[in-house]
Amino acid sequence: MASDVLGQPLQAARAGWRLEHSYTEQLSSLFHSPVSPTPVRDPQFVVLNGPLAATLGLDADALSNDEGAAIFGGNALPDGARPIAQAYAGHQFGHFTALGDGRAILLGEQITPDGRRVDVQLKGAGQTPYSRRGDGRAALGPMLRELIISEGMHNLGIPTSRSLAVVSTGEPVYREQVLAGAVLTRVASSHIRVGTFEWAAAHRDPGALSALADYTRRRHYPDISDAGRPHLALFDAVVERQAALVARWQLVGFIHGVMNTDNMALSGETIDYGPCAFMDAYDPATVFSSIDHGGRYAYGNQPAIAQWNLARLAEAMLPLFDPRQEGAIELATSALDRFASLFHRHWMDGMRAKLGLFAGEADDEALVDDLLEWMHRTRADFTNTFRMLSLAGEADKVVARDAAFAAWHARWRLRLQRQPQADGEVVARMRGHNPAFIPRNHKVEEALAAATEAADMSATARLLDVLASPWDHERDLPAFSSPPAPGGPAYQTFCGT
Ligand code: AMP
Ligand code: MG
Q1: Structural domain boundaries in the chain
Q2: Is 193 touching ligand 1 by the criterion CB < 6 Å?
Q3: Which stretch of 2-11, 281-290, 352-361, 412-421 has the lowest confidence by average pLDDT?
Q4: At 6, is the pLDDT very low, low, confident or very high (cuts 50, 70, 90)?
Q5: Ligand 2: distance of its center to the CA of 193 in Å?
Q6: For residue 21, with 0-12 CB atoms within 10 Å meaning exposed, 13-18 middle and 19 or more buried, which class applies?
Q7: Is the pLDDT of residue 342 over 90?
Q8: H-state helical runs in 22-155
Q9: Which of 177, 151, 174 is nearest to 164 (CA)?
Q10: Quick one: which of 77, 292, 367, 389 is 20 to 30 A from 106 by CA?
């Protein structure tokens, strides 16, 4: 039976909650603190993600009412919840800090009908022991933004946390302006971060550190056996997943914006959507975050930063690799060194697919680099340049007006002719790897403005509908596929939201 925070029973059991608490039960209190969500004045659904609810075994109809809004607003607890805030540290813009969930509260781990275990977390649910000077709250715009972009990433097939609900609180939050408050329900394979390992290491607690490594391995990498060097095998596997993940980001022009070590999940999912955005014109130096003055987290730096973060993970895990420090460093270094070649392989495999190539040839890298160089020089739209290549008439228009592109295009056509696949197969491959629709910044902003300024959710609903089928090249929706008009203001996104 569900009960609200005041202890009154609710009839929400039929909603399908099946919450467990392996994190709290298997890891010491170093890693978590019990904390209840702080109730809000007037929780009202803004979005309830029905398809996601279904995959979690939750009945959206049974939740689409005041009781459901009370749960997702933090005024009531679902059946079986044991709310906690998680402790972690992190390197933020290169500097080590103790952090923890300052405004996120984990309700528990939902066991899905297909047997997966996923965290259900309220973001913006009030203060926790880790809030420092923060108010524990979140604003409606940024929470809807996380929902739109994370669902967009999921639909592009990129591992990511997801967004189950956004509930408005009926309370103001005070930022540079007074904004409407909201709570986002985030669903993730887990919220174990590089920073969680750094937290354990900073406490010089070898027992806690190895328990965390064992727990992470069982939860996310169950195929790694206990035998041999399981902790090193875990690190290897994490390196591999991060190399694959960041390659996926690069291949769609996604910029995370704050790749601090507390925002890198050991599961290999994208988490913590703050000042993230998709690039329009191709430029490796693209930065959107208003606080990233040095361009540390620019598009072109993301692979190197991922490796830097993994080096922090290796440092934290060192005592687990080998009790002798020198031996441990040697093992960690050679494991970490694999990142660059793994990333490169995923990136080149993905780029070949985007160009309709099947097997690899030695000159492919130059072919890719030369296209990117042309795109950079001409400020070509990242998404639409690749899409244009599979639309014969469109590519011909650019060939007719740009000699440098024409030369590149001729080389690429020759390369295509050297492979046995028919044109139809080539086009199908390209269309499956070059999205027609991404969450374009100006469309996201348009939707958020209508939602926050006029309580009009129609633009958000429409955008979510378009983003649900990013590979549907038959839909002709220039309003959603065109880049913003040139000469507009530079796009910026904000942290501390
Ligand atoms: P983020 O930049 O979202 O990864 O957050 C960095 C740290 O700041 C995390 O420990 C968050 O929990 C914390 N934080 C962000 N916003 C707030 C807030 N409004 N109140 C309390 N803590 C916050
Ligand atoms: Mg974070």
Answers
A1: 2-191, 206-497
A2: no
A3: 2-11
A4: very low
A5: 9
A6: middle
A7: yes
A8: 22-26, 50-55, 60-63, 66-73, 140-155
A9: 151
A10: 292
The single residue of 79, 262, 280, 381 carrying the catalytic annotation is 262
Q: What percent of the chain has pLDDT over 70?
A: 96
Our mutation pick for probing the ligand 1 site, out of 131, 194, 256, counting the most ligand atoms within 8 A of Cβ, is: 131
- 136 close to ligand 1 (CB < 6 Angstrom): yes
Closest approach atom of ligand 1 to CA 496: 16
Cα 274 to ligand 1 centre (Å): 10
Residue 4 pLDDT greater than 90, yes or no: no
Whether 262 is a known active-site residue: answer: yes
β-bridge pairing 104-111 and 277-278: unpaired
What average pLDDT does the segment 276-300 reach? 94
Whole-angstrom distance, CA of residue 175 vs CA of residue 471: 38
Overall pTM surpassing 0.85 (yes/no)? yes
Compute the C-alpha angle 63/67/68, nearest 5°: 35
Nearest partner of 361 among 351, 375, 371, judged by Cα? 351
Give me the residues paired with residue 104 across strands: 123
Q: 179 CB under 6 A from ligand 1?
A: no
Orientation of helix 206-220 relative to helix 194-202, angle to 10° = 160
The pair of three-digit structure tokens given for residue 65, joined into one six-digit string: 């009412």
The two tokens of residue 492 are 């910026």
Residue 313 has pLDDT above 60, yes or no: yes
Chain mean position to CA 95: 22
Hey, which of 38, 95, 99, 296 would you mutate to test ligand 1's pocket, going by the most ligand atoms within 8 Å of its Cβ? 99
Within 8 A by CB and 6+ apart from 181, the residues are 40, 124, 137, 138, 139, 140, 168, 169, 170, 171, 172, 173
Token pair of 63 as six digits: 């939740």
Q: Say if ligand 1 is within 6 A of residue 103 CB.
A: yes
Instruction: Check whether 492 has a pLDDT greater than 80.
Output: no
Tell me: the pLDDT tens digits for 201-215? Answer: 999 999 999 999 999
